[in-house]
């Protein structure tokens, strides 16, 4: 059913620019999101309790207002265009935020209900946040916490675009409209297959590792940028045999005998669980800083603010 309160039924959102004004209705946004999720006018209409003709009309009017084609239409297939894919997370968040406003303000203030959306790098999403989400849910069962496990770069872009309330990851340098709050630091480890000659050492120098077939993050990744910058100060260049996007892939490639991996301490438990050995790397000693990524131009909802405070308090006890 298309649930709209009486006083919001015909509400329109005005979007201003220096050249023109756009008026987009809530119904149009709801129709767009429903069609994007169902990839079918018929199923979207059933979900919203609207006739297919109304769904088509609302979507066509939205496309006319935006001046963009949101879907590619074929005889038996419907799919989002690139523009539609970029607009979809913003439309979802807009509707979620408006639904929160329409709800009971008393419940929002007392955290009786609400929604928190987080973008987190894959390691933090898999090995750190689940425990905090469980603890937070036990204290605030009415608040839904939605987590997106994405790459380091996507954490920044999702916060910047407004697709999520905040992010958790690693950054390097400054970024427009984004603020960073340090949470904890992680040490770098060499990840070795069983029986590797370097496993006899308690610590390994970066210069010793450079002689090995190395596996690590791709260039452009904030973690890789941090490593390259720190090693350049020592006159060292990190030449990787294999570059990956996800830390889990690094561990898998080491286990498969493709070389020596470079990972941070957050992956230690998982790497050791599959039989790999980890040794700290020194000279220089490099640490990865895990930060809370916030948009400086937006304030957090009560629920998101409460979760971010819980995350900050949790981090003070040391790296999770």
- Residues in helices, as a percent range: 40-55%
Compressed to H and E, one letter per element, the order equals EEHHHEEHHEHHEHEEEHEHEHEHEEH
CATH class of the domain at 185-289: Alpha Beta
Mean pLDDT metric: 85
CATH topology of the domain at 185-289, what is it called?
D-Maltodextrin-Binding Protein, domain 2
CATH architecture type of the domain at 185-289: 3-Layer(aba) Sandwich
Q: Which structural class best describes the helix and strand composition?
A: alpha/beta
How many H/I helical runs?
13
Give Rg in angstroms: 24 Å
Poorly predicted segments? 1-21
What is the CATH superfamily of the domain at 185-289?
Answer: Periplasmic binding protein-like II
Sheet bearing the most strands, described? 10 strands, mixed
3D architecture notes:
Helices cover 42% and strands 25% of the residues. It is built from 13 helices and 14 strands. Strands 5, 6, 7, 8, 9, 10, 11, 12, 13 and 14 form a 10-stranded mixed β-sheet that branches. The chain has a two-stranded antiparallel sheet with strand order 1-2. Strands 3-4 form a two-stranded antiparallel ribbon. The N terminus is likely disordered. The longest helix has 21 residues. With 320 residues, the chain is an alpha/beta fold. Helix 1 crosses helix 2.
